[in-house]
Each structure stands twice: as C-alpha cells, then as structure tokens.
C-alpha cells in the first residue's frame, strides 16, 4: 500500500487501522484454529490453502498494519534499509494472498473439471509444495525494492511509501503483472468452473435412472458449486478492496500533477487492509463447517457446564453429518 507524501499521525486513520488489525488477527486465528484442530477439516485440501491465506491475513494484522501506521508517521527516520524492509512486508503479504487465491482457484478447477485426476494432482503433499512455493515467490517479489529497485533515499530521512518505492515497480510490475494478470486468470478459471458445474448438474437431471446414485452425484456437484461460489466471493472482495489503491497509484504515475486528497489515499489504504478482516466473515456466513464451529464456540462460552451432546460438539467442533459432508468434498465424482 502507498503512504501519503507528508507524514504525520492521523488519529482517525490510526484508530481505524488498529481496529482492522484486531479483527483481522482474531477472525483469521479462529479460522486456523477451526481447521487445524479437526482431522476431517485438515483432510480437505481446499482448507490447506485457506489456512495459508488466513496466515497471510494474520501477518497483515500483526506486522503489515503496524508498519503502515509507522510509515504514516514517517518512522523510522534516518534508517533507509529498515524502512525499506518494513515497507516490503506490505508487498510480501499482499502477494502471498494473491498467490493463495490463485492456488484455490486452480484447486477448485481441477476438483470440478478433472475429478478423477484430483486425488493425484491435489494430494496433501502437492498442496503443501504449492503453498511453500507461493510464499517463496511472494517473498522474492516483495523484497525486490530492498534488492535495489527503489528510489534514491530521501534527504529528510523520513520513511514513506512514495519516497522509497519506485512507481514503475508499484504500477507496472506489482499491479499489472503480479495482480491484474493473476486476477484475470482466476476470473477465467471460475467462469469455467461455474459453466461446467451447471452443465454437469443439468446432465445428471436429464439422465436420472439410478435415482440414489444420481441424487448423490447431484448433491456433491451442488456442494462443489456452493464452495466455488464462496471462494469467488472472497476473490471479488479482494479485488474490490485492493483495486482502488492501485488505481490511485496508476493515476499518480500517469499524471504526477493530479492532486490526490490525503483522506482519499488513507481511506483506500484502510480498505486494502480491511480485506484481511473480511475473509473470516465470508467463511462463517457461506461455509457450513465454519458457521457451525462459530456457533459452537459461542455455545461453549455461554454454557460452562454443557450437556453431553453439546460437550461433544464443543470438543470436536463438527457434527457427524458435517464431517461426512467434508469428507465427500475431495471424493471424485461418480462415473459419468
């Protein structure tokens, strides 16, 4: 994200960013806890990528937002290398989120369009390798300014994004190559996913002979489509939160004399960081496993001595039916 050129502590901005950081950390730690504490959820490959995305969002709340707040105040002064490293953390976590979203889109594409190849292509080992590779690549891309792709260090020694990060890196490389191209690829993948899922559902409906087998297949397809829709909403929210800031950066590169009000710039920065707090909300409202875990967490909080049924639910975090549902998500579809 980009910092205003004349630093100084903006109290409303500081408070809003602090609230965003707290919500991001709390919400995404909840998502990680729900997945990691349950064996059935850990077995779902999609959730491996969701944990990686949640970790990036936790780091936004614990590292990136405090760094942005410091840069808003022009800190640290007179330490250009430390300043560059601090600003690069913003770029690393953003890029890790983009690669995480792209990996999720590819995983969903394989699940629906190549269900019989899914177990071999998207094994847990392969998913972890993809996650590790995406983080290494995101780190390399984010650290490029520290490696030399930056402006000459300002004479006043103040740490601001505009003063250090090259506009060409921010717009042509970080925005166009590393954000717009992956976003375009994800839109193509999700378009193919929705078209294929609807085609298969219609095909099953037209050829129902063995009702029980086809009914099960249709239920699986509906679950796959619902999951893909939820993940597409996450992608849409990411684009909605980050594009305004990058559009302003592009306008400033093309038209350096065009004024950009400081409140507008700070608002787009807050919006970009707020994306890290939005994802857990989407998970809870759109995905049954997280919604049930969220309900269970509050039930346990309000019932210190729960009944046996509630106690079991609080311990496992999932109902048996939900566990069976999750187990079926990675199962290949029945024969065509």
TrEMBL record:
PROSITE patterns attached to this UniProt entry: G_PROTEIN_RECEP_F1_1 (PS00237), G_PROTEIN_RECEP_F1_2 (PS50262)
Keywords, ordered alphabetically: Cell membrane, Disulfide bond, G-protein coupled receptor, Glycoprotein, Membrane, Receptor, Transducer, Transmembrane, Transmembrane helix
Signal peptide, first to last residue: none
Molecular function terms, GO-annotated: G protein-coupled adenosine receptor activity
Domain of life: Eukaryota
Keyword hit for Disulfide bond: yes
Annotated InterPro entries: Adenosn_rcpt, GPCR_Rhodpsn, GPCR_Rhodpsn_7TM
Protein's name in the database: G-protein coupled receptors family 1 profile domain-containing protein
Transmembrane segments: 12-36, 48-71, 83-106, 127-147, 171-195, 225-245, 265-285
Taxonomic source organism: Gopherus evgoodei
Lineage of the species this protein comes from: Eukaryota, Metazoa, Chordata, Craniata, Vertebrata
């Amino acid at each position: 994200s980009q910092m205003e050129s004349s630093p100084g502590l903006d109290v409303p901005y500081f408070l809003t960013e602090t609230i965003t950081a707290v919500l991001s950390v709390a919400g995404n730690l909840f998502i990680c806890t729900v997945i990691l504490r349950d064996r059935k959820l850990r077995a779902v490959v999609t959730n491996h990528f969701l944990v990686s995305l949640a970790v990036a969002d936790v780091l936004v709340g614990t590292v990136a937002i405090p760094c942005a707040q410091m840069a808003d105040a022009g800190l640290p002064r007179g330490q250009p290398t430390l300043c560059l490293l601090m600003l690069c953390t913003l770029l690393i976590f953003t890029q890790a989120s983009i690669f995480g979203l792209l990996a999720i889109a590819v995983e969903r594409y394989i699940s629906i369009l190549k269900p019989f190849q899914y177990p071999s292509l998207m094994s847990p080992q392969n998913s972890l390798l993809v996650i590790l590779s995406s983080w290494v690549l995101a780190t390399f891309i984010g650290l490029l300014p520290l490696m030399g792709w930056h402006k000459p260090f300002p004479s006043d020694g103040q740490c601001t994004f505009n003063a250090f990060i090259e506009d060409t890196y921010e717009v042509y490389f970080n925005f166009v190559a590393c954000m717009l191209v992956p976003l375009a690829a994800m839109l193509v993948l999700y378009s193919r996913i929705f078209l294929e899922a609807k085609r298969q559902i219609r095909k099953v409906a037209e050829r129902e002979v063995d009702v029980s087998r086809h009914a099960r297949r249709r239920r699986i397809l509906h679950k796959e489509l619902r999951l893909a829709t939820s993940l597409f909403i996450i992608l849409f929210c990411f684009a909605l939160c980050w594009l305004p800031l990058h559009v302003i950066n592009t306008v400033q590169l093309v038209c350096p004399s065009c004024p950009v009000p400081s409140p507008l710039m700070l608002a787009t920065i807050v919006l970009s960081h707020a994306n890290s707090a939005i994802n857990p909300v989407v998970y809870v409202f759109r995905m049954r496993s997280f919604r049930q875990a969220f309900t269970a967490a509050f039930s346990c909080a309000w019932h210190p001595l729960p009944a046996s049924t509630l106690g079991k639910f609080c311990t496992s975090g999932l109902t048996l039916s939900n566990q069976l549902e999750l187990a079926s998500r990675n199962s290949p579809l029945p024969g065509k």
